[in-house]
Amino acid sequence: MRIRICYTEQAEVVRELISKFITNMKEFKKIKRRDFIGTTAAAAVGLTVVPSNVIAGLGHKPPSDKLNIAGVGIGGMGFGNLRRMETENIVALCDVDWAHSQRCFDHFPKAKKYWDWRKMYDEMGKSIDAVLVATADHTHAIVAAHAMTLNKHVYVQKPLTHSVYESRLLTKLAEKYKVATSMGNQGSSEEGVRLIQEWLWNNEIGEVTKVEAFTDRPLWPQGLAAPKMGMWPPDTMNWDLFIGPAKFRPYHRMYTPWTFRGWWDFGTGALGDMACHILHPVFMGLKLGYPTKVQGVSTLLMTDSPPDSEVVQLIFPARPKEKGIKINFPEVQVTWMDGGIRPMKPSEWPEGRDMNYDGGGVIFHGTKDKLICGCYGRNPWLMSGRVPNAPKLIPRIELSHEQDWIRACKESPENRIETASPFSEAGPFNEMVVMGVLAVRLQDLHKELHWDGPNMEFTNIRDNEEFKFCIDDGMEIIEGHPRFNKVWSDPINAQVFAKELIKHTYREGWILPDMPA
Q1: How many domains would you assign to the chain?
Q2: Residue (of 449, 419, 495, 513) closest to 166 by Cα position
Q3: What is the pLDDT of residues 22-51, one digit of tens each?
Q4: In what helix (H) or strand (E) does residue 144 lie, and over which residues does it extend?
Q5: Is 497 within 8 Å of 437 (Cβ atoms)?
Q6: Are strands 360-366 and 293-298 parallel, antiparallel or unpaired?
Q7: pLDDT category of residue 479 using cuts at 50, 70 and 90
Q8: Is 441 in contact with 310 (CB distance < 8 Å)?
Q9: Within a domain: 60
Q10: Contact 189/401 with Cβ under 8 angstroms?
């Protein structure tokens, strides 16, 4: 019989009981395992027995024990993630759109259903071990942050957060509470990302000063004006809970479920959707940190919706050379493209070979060779045709991305092997991704922006700088000719707007935990 004891004020009594068994190690070693477990169980009669929690500090959860997992945002990617977590107990499901989530409810009929994750935490917090977060981008941070303050392990879909500040917060909360974390960029668990890092570090292509990356997304509509009229939300949706911390606006079916990423208040466009997959081997392989300079250009930039296509350039300063790595890390320019834009093919490019592999691609321009890979870091190859034979420095993951997180959840913080995308790495990486969003949304300042990463602020936006957004392009076809009568916003203070993008002002009733020191 195996029991688990709730870590309350009675924990000290448990420790004392256990210590009596190990006072004399010679005699303790003579006790059979079965007798020891039985005796301990008898001694612990009367203590609270819970279905799935583990005593903090009294060891890790055995792999055979099952976690109690709650899912928040379970109608889309969340359902797929939960199906890959079915080795565990799926005990609670939360979503604001119950029609879209019905298939998940049907698949896990024993799980308790909720509209509001806050109520779920209040009612089931003590019996939940871990939380999957796969809501719209703008609520990733608040759901995950409060879970961590309750000492819950968290798996958060990409992008990790909607803003720079939120990424920094999740990074620090994970460090403070020592929970197992993972961002849902599943390519980080695959072989390609590891090979790319090992090839780069083994000096297979020389020093890298330029990287170009792209995706064929978006697949959803972007570059849109907000609907002029709202609609009544269906009875199966709680629109107020979907809005969450964002500024309230009337419901319209254009906003959700699948299209939320095409609206600034709820998503981060094609950049946030795919850069977390495509730029991950770039961030890891080149040991990137904070960029120092950023700029973006795009098709017509609207107030409410990301552009149809965009280009972002980020400059990273030189980084220290690390032990065991054979290359230096000079200043590097990383360029991102989406919406149909892709890099020009180098002169050596094999004729007829498509640059797009599984939704995007990357070209590392080295001083000796070029390294190319697809989305998720898949199918890496060298332009020269040479196949590297670099030492395998990075442990391989044999489990799925989700199962590797579950494995980490069951290990004690002191002995935990981190996941492939823990918040200690995913947080700073996501700051790079959403920095691209800032560059695009501030492009009408018409200059390269200078970024102070540690202090999360731009250093070259003046107090009196202003710009305007296009609210509606006013396009009409008159006698066969397009005419535009664009509607522009009032002048916007650039510094105030930039600070709001970096750290959002949450709607009343929605609060993030404090930033740990």
Answers
A1: 3
A2: 513
A3: 443 334 333 333 333 333 333 333 333 344
A4: helix 140-149
A5: no
A6: unpaired
A7: confident
A8: no
A9: no
A10: yes
How far, in Å, are 170, 318, 335 from residue 431 at the CA level?
Answer: 11, 18, 16
492: pLDDT strictly greater than 70: yes
Residues of the chain with pLDDT > 70: what percent? 88
CB atoms closer than 10 angstroms to residue 60: 15
Peptide bond just before 317 cis, omega within 30 deg: no
Residue 170 pLDDT: 98
**Which H/E stretch holds residue 471?**
strand 470-472
> What range does the domain containing 159 cover?
68-185+400-421
Q: Where are the alpha helices (DSSP H) in 214-333?
A: 239-243, 269-278, 280-285
Dump pLDDT digits (tens) for 335-360.
999 999 999 999 999 999 999 999 99
User: Omega of the bond prior to 218 within 30 degrees of 0, cis?
Assistant: yes
Q: First vs last Cα of the chain: how many Å apart?
A: 43
SS3 (DSSP) at 297: strand
Q: Could you give the CA distance from residue 335 to residue 434 in angstroms, rounded to a whole number?
A: 14
Which amino acid is present at 379? N
Q: Which residues of 354-364 are buried (b: 16+ CB within 10 A; e: fewer)?
A: ebebbbbbbbb
Residue position matching structure tokens 């959707």: 273
**C-alpha–C-alpha distance, residues 136 and 158, integer Å:** 10
Q: What single letter denotes the amino acid at residue 242? A: F
Q: How far is CA 348 from CA 307, 344, 345, 373, in A?
A: 32, 11, 8, 16
In terms of DSSP H, where are the helices of 237-352? 239-243, 269-278, 280-285
CB 357 within 8 A of CB 234: no
Which residues have C-beta within 8 Å of that of residue 76, sequence separation ≥ 6? 100, 134, 257, 258
Model confidence over 142-152: pLDDT tens digits?
999 999 999 99
- In this structure, the answer to whether residues 74 and 193 fall within a common structural domain is no
CATH label of the domain that carries residue 132:
3.40.50.720
Between 238 and 12, whose confidence is greater?
238
9 φ, ψ (degrees, to nearest 5): -65, -15
Which residue, among 377, 365, 327, 362, has the nearest Cα to 210 in the 3D structure? 365
Are residue 405 and residue 329 in the same domain, yes or no? Answer: no
Residue 317 tokens read as 């300063």
Residues 427 and 174 sit within 8 Å (Cβ to Cβ): yes
Q: Report if residue 100 sits inside a domain.
A: yes
How far is residue 241's CA from residue 260's CA, in Å, rounded to a whole number?
Answer: 14
H or E element: which one contains 492? strand 492-493
C-beta of residue 265 within 8 angstroms of C-beta of residue 224 = no
